Amino acid sequence: MARRLSHVGPEGVGAFAMAAVDIACWDLAAQSHKVPLYRLLGHEGRPLPVYGTVGFLSLSLDELRQQTTKILEKGVHGVKVMVGHPDPRQDLERVRAVASLVGATRRLMIDANCAYRTVSEALDRMAVLRDLPIYWIEEPLQPHQIEDLGQFRRRAPFKTAAGESLYLPQGIGRFVERGVVDIAQPDILRMGGITPMLRAFGLIESKNLPVAPHHFPELMTPLLGASPNALYIEYLPYFVDGIFEQAPVIDRGMIRPLDVPGHGIRFHPDVLKTAQ
């Protein structure tokens, strides 16, 4: 598929198209063998810890608190909040509000969504948050700023996580080979599906880095168990709640893959009608 896309490039929409076909093939293969996808991938479907993502910058402080409280009711092991507000004081207020709800027994993470332009700007923004118990800062810089990200990681007060904006295994491979991240976060659609995602896991494991994939808990739950370096499954309630008739569920902060042939994911009929 990548070769057929060579004239337009296998990244962007091309990677998403390859992912759709590749995921469907794995699902069909597991169904034909009458086994869950996780068994076809060679593991026992162990439960995995979940963290929740909250706090688009458009939310008010009260809305942010409400969203955080709701996601904590799932028993998640950590909460990640968006940062990158034009006013650093707003970031500090927002992260403090979430930290007060998360408490000391769960991890607190932040996600800048590539908001900062330079290493110095990113470090200045982290200095404002230095006294908070932050586990990682995600995507402080644009994905093409590989050398800058390495400089940032060496000087940052928190662990550096990134990878969701990279395409194909070679994209995430460049990050881990150059040692610019502490935690790798490949995205299954940008990787091009399950087959290249497994290759990406191998590259990440070769450097003994934790892997916390981007989004898609319904797909990542049967897949991530195949990696000995699995750290977290990401849960974004506003993207997944109410969409599926059948999908893995979170129980006391853990998620386990469905024990049915294939990946087992079924969209809710009302959602399909709306999509049409």
Element layout with pairings:
Layout: H1 13-32, H2 37-40, E1 48-54, H3 61-72, E2 78-82, H4 88-102, E3 107-111, H5 119-128, E4 134-138, H6 146-155, E5 159-162, H7 168-177, E6 183-184, H8 188-191, H9 194-206, H10 217-224, E7 233-235, H11 237-240, E8 244-246, E9 250-251, E10 254-255, E11 266-267, H12 269-275
Parallel strand pairs: 1-2, 1-7, 2-3, 3-4, 4-5, 5-6
Antiparallel strand pairs: 1-10, 8-11, 9-10
Helix pairs in contact: 3-4, 5-6, 7-9
Task: Please provide a written account of the structure.
- With 276 residues, the protein is of the alpha/beta class.
- It has a single domain (13-275), classed as TIM Barrel, CATH 3.20.20.
- 42% of the residues lie in helices and 14% in strands.
- The protein has 12 helices and 11 strands.
- The strands form 2 sheets. Strands 1, 2, 3, 4, 5, 6, 7, 9 and 10 form a 9-stranded mixed sheet that branches. The protein has a two-stranded antiparallel ribbon with strand order 8-11.
- Strand 3, helix 5 (119-128) and strand 4 (134-138) form a beta-alpha-beta unit.
- Helix 3 runs parallel beside helix 4, helix 5 packs parallel to helix 6 and helix 7 runs parallel beside helix 9.
- The longest helix is centred in the N-terminal third of the chain and has 20 residues, at 13-32.
- The model has no long low-confidence stretch (mean pLDDT 96).
